[in-house]
UniProtKB/TrEMBL annotation:
GO cellular component, one term: nucleus
Protein name per the record: single-stranded DNA cytosine deaminase
Spans annotated as Disordered: 1-32
Stored InterPro entries: APOBEC/CMP_deaminase_Zn-bd, APOBEC_Cyt_Deaminase, CMP_dCMP_dom, Cytidine_deaminase-like
Record-listed E.C. numbers: 3.5.4.38
Gene name as annotated: APOBEC3B
Cofactor(s) the record lists: Zn(2+)
Gene Ontology molecular functions: cytidine deaminase activity; RNA binding; zinc ion binding
Length: 656
DNA sequence: ATTTTCAAT
């Protein structure tokens, strides 16, 4: 800047160094020193553009004329110089500092510099400017940025700059108009705000204000000559609706290498802030968090679901990070669960098969079976995506179909867990508009232990599908348990269908917490709240016939729910020589619950419906039929039935 | 606390 070129010449040099448009062809008006042409202004300052370069328009207010600022430099336009050649790259802000330092300023006088930047300063520039301000008490600096440049530790930079006394704000239409008038070769055309200006500007303002400890008490919005302290056009997003504002990065995950050059479009090509109806929002309010995220067993009134997500993207030699929040919503009158919103947004991103994506969800409700199915399908298709789900509460956790959904997620390799204290803290720090407030768990963890145990037992004992070895061992009808010896426990596989429809629910249950599988089965069916005026049929396959207590419970269940007809097939008879047990079986029969012994037909069906059979056909074990016949003979004796007859064959064929 | 529910699972 030692030459006498002035701002426009420097900018020309910058353009030349860029080797992009030939000097003078675009950008600055050749004979209008301090003016930008209309296209350049629009391209660089419109906040919905994201060009990989920075323009800086500055004005200096001097106490008097001739106080050290060269006449033609009290106002100027600078842009960064990128460095394809040997030159060291230089941000526009550095060039401004160099320029100011080249002036012969009177140390007793006061100078006010106002800058309008197309991108806010990067970390390094902000630090440099802060340093400069500390050394130059006779200069004050006001910055207006069209957009926040959010790479690296930009927030620290801005904080430092602010502490050094600079004032900072996002440009509103007032500032754009001022720039238009002062720096733009507008040929007399009035400034036309573009659609969405106020919103874009407001979003960046919010983001700027959210930088912790940025605002100093009493520090207001900066003024530039002529702004007369008019109230700025703060954009206020609708309550609870904020959109993510890319870049940056959060605790522990922020991208490194701040000050990369040139100021390029942020690495992430995912842009959740583009506002389409299914796009995510940014932060949620503390109220939302404390209402929607506590781990409660009885969660009254939580009629919606929040999904806070982060996406860690790892590619060759680079990685990036994205985050946001989804809420379930109705879109063209159709409801979409939050999970679905995420998936549809994510699949819309510019994904590369060469990169790996690790997705983490923090959910207020765990996924429903439909969403679980959707997720499983998604993971099958996107092999380079892994998913972790931390859920605050379990959605309909007592219902077998919902349990099954969770089990399927888990089987598909999803890391699934109930949110822990640390997860809550992380969510607070990352997704909540906490305004610097420290995390307090308050009631968030109230039923956390219960839910964690519940999930664990769902994943452990909701065995859908059954593993092959377990099926063979547990359902085997050998008189003695084959070696190596394991205890043969009760497994109950049930299949429910409406009389005139196809299967609507099925699951395999074990005893749990001293509740026999049969009782859990009754619980499961009750939880479905089946319509009373419709007829249903349930087939159960059990490894052991019911104990007397369970038999009684089943009888009571059948009496109470006459619209449900129930059939039982047992592989083996449980302590059938005991009078009590015999009695139970008789009672079942007497109350319209037929009990029969599983034959190869039933084993085959059980294999097909409940076992992770990997498409293989059922292979009967040695003497299966013979054992089955022996047990059948025993049962008939108990039930005082005549030997095998056609009636029984019909019964078997009826439901299969 | 046998009832909580991405409001219509
Ligand atoms: Zn769902």
């Amino acid at each position: 800047m030692e030459d006498m070129g002035g701002a426009s010449v420097q900018a020309h040099q910058a353009l030349a160094a860029d080797a992009q448009p030939p000097p003078g062809a675009r950008g600055l008006i050749p004979d209008g020193r301090h003016l930008l042409d209309e296209d350049t202004f629009t391209e660089n300052f419109r906040s919905d553009n994201r060009p990989p370069r920075t323009y800086l328009c500055y004005e200096v207010e001097r106490p008097d004329r001739g106080s050290g600022v060269p006449l033609d430099q009290d106002k100027g336009i600078l842009r960064n110089k990128s460095a394809p050649g040997p030159e060291v790259p230089c941000h526009a802000e550095s060039r401004l500092l160099e320029q100011i330092q080249s002036w012969d300023l009177g140390p007793k006088l006061h100078y006010r510099v106002t800058c309008f930047l197309s991108w806010s300063p990067c970390t390094d520039c902000a630090q440099d400017m802060a340093q400069f301000l500390k050394e130059s008490s006779h200069v004050s600096l006001s910055l207006f940025a069209s957009r926040l440049y959010t790479r690296g530790h930009y927030d620290e930079g801005l904080r430092t700059l602010k502490r050094a006394g600079a004032s900072m704000a996002i440009m509103t239409s007032r500032e754009f108009e001022h720039c238009w008038t002062a720096f733009e070769h507008h040929k007399g055309n009035p400034f036309q705000p573009w659609p969405g200006l106020a919103m874009e500007s407001g979003k960046f303002s919010e983001k700027l204000q959210r930088i912790p400890r940025l605002e100093q008490p009493g520090a207001g919005r900066p003024c530039w000559a002529g702004s007369v302290g008019a109230s700025p056009e703060w954009f206020r997003a609708k309550a609870g609706r904020r959109w993510g504002l890319g870049g940056g990065g959060l605790g522990g995950l922020r991208s490194r290498g701040g000050g990369g050059f040139p100021k390029a479009k942020p690495l992430r090509r995912m842009e959740p802030w583009r506002h389409r109806p299914r796009d995510p929002m940014g932060w949620i309010s503390p109220e939302t968090f404390f209402f929607h995220f506590p781990s409660l067993r009885y969660a009254f009134g939580r009629n919606s679901c929040y999904l806070c997500f982060q996406v860690e993207r790892e590619g060759k030699g680079h990685s990036s990070y994205d985050w946001g929040v989804f809420q379930n919503k109705v879109y063209f009158e159709a409801p979409y669960h939050a999970e679905f919103c995420f998936l549809s947004w994510f699949c819309d991103q510019d994904l590369s098969p060469d990169e790996h994506y690790h997705v983490t969800w923090f959910l207020s409700w765990s996924p429903c079976p439909t969403c679980a199915e959707e997720v499983v399908r998604f993971l099958r298709e996107y092999r380079n995506v892994t998913l972790s789900i931390f859920t605050a509460r379990l959605y309909y956790f007592w219902r077998p179909d919902f349990q099954d959904g969770l089990y399927r997620l888990w089987s598909a390799g999803v890391h699934l867990d109930v949110m822990s204290f640390e997860d809550y803290e992380y969510c607070w720090d990352t997704f909540v508009d906490h305004n610097g407030m420290r995390f307090r768990s308050r009631d968030l963890l109230r039923d956390n232990d219960f839910l964690a145990t519940e999930l664990e037992s769902i994943l452990r004992t909701t065995m859908n599908p059954l593993q092959q070895e377990i099926f063979f061992y547990q359902f085997g009808n050998q008189p003695r348990a084959p070696k190596p010896y394991h205890r043969r426990k009760t497994y109950l596989c049930y299949q429910l269908k409406p009389h005139d429809g196809s299967v609507t629910a099925k699951a395999c249950l074990q005893n749990k917490k001293k509740r026999h599988a049969e009782i859990r089965f009754i619980d499961s069916i009750m939880a479905l709240k089946l319509e009373k005026d419709r007829r249903f049929e349930i087939t159960c396959y059990v490894t052991w016939s019911p104990c007397p207590t369970c038999a009684k419970e089943l009888v009571a269940f059948a009496r109470k729910h006459s619209h449900i007809s129930l059939r039982l097939f047992a592989s083996r008879l449980y302590f059938h020589w005991l009078q009590e047990n015999k009695q139970g079986l008789k009672q079942l029969h007497a109350s319209g619950i037929p009990v029969a012994v599983m034959s190869s037909l039933e084993f085959e069906d059980c294999w097909r419906e409940f076992v992770d059979n990997q498409g293989k056909p059922f292979q009967p074990w040695n003497k299966l039929e013979q054992y089955s016949k022996n047990i059948t003979r025993r049962l008939r004796k108990i039930l005082k039935q005549p030997p095998q007859n056609d009636l029984e064959n019909e019964f078997r064929n009826l439901h299969l």
